[in-house]
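fyi for ur records
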Amino acid sequence: MITKRLTEGIQSLSPAYFSLPMATGIIAIASFTIGYSTIGSILLWVNNIAILALVLLLLIRVIFFFPLFLSDLDSQNKGSEFLSIVAALSLCGSANLLIAHRHALADFCLISAIFLWTVFSYGFLFKMVRRNRKHSLYQGIDGAWLLLVVSLEGLSILSNLLAEIHPPIHELLFLIALGFHLLGMWFYLTIIMLLFYRLLFLPWRDLDFNASYWITMGAASIITLAGSMFIQSLPQSNLLDSIIPSIKVATIFFWVVACWWIPLLVYLEIEKLRHTSFRYHAGSWSFVFPLGVFTMCTWHLAQVMQIPYLKLIPEKTIFLAWIAWIVVFIAMCQKWITAKKN
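which gave:
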């Protein structure tokens, strides 16, 4: 019975489960950076265990259930979720580098993430372009498409961090990081217009709202985080120091966009909860990730822009991120226990 249930679980394994290490990784980094080093270290271990287990399950699925894997990648609704794997690996590498100083692991995560980004992003987009029967904008797009942005900015952050510890290829890694960052901004502006049109001008029910829409705020926040890291590291590069003013303007712009999304998302979440109670599913971690990355980006922005009072925000939101992580983690465990009993 256990073997049968495990097989069925692997067959239907959703790539959205990688939002668990995504959320855990960024909250670990935020906790460590703000000063809660013990909590950051604990979350790092949880993150490493989760991503290792998920990668092993994914490999089993690819090897033994490849047609099902390919079917999900070909899906207009599920295909973009595979990019959560790239984001999870990038943030895992960044967390291990910043908290535990595991340079070799960070290098491996960057190489693996770049390879998987190439496979999943182009594989998904090529299939979307060549589909003869496509969903309408009403049915075919949600916040998960913004994982194209999150994955790119995750790669940018890790490349930027590694540039500082690899002097021989410093400029190359820096250029790669900048390229990922700029491409992420382009994808955000493109996709967010479609999502905004979806919200304002197409039919909407409260139950249409799901946790993936929180990535609208999370994607803007991780762009802010990557941009603030460039502001900090650009003076170390003689090649690109002239673009600092542009990076500063863009970074503040995306932080303002992230802040703007919060009241709207809270309103939509409340309206949905009026019709249905909270139920855990793989994508629920997409609600936790934006809280962690918003906390981290605001702290980093306050530091590089030398605005001390801005740190009052992440000093409070880190507690919200912990609470959200604990609530979703408990809900996940309860679901597993209930499934085991049934």
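DSSP finds 13 helices and no strands in the chain. thats all i got for now
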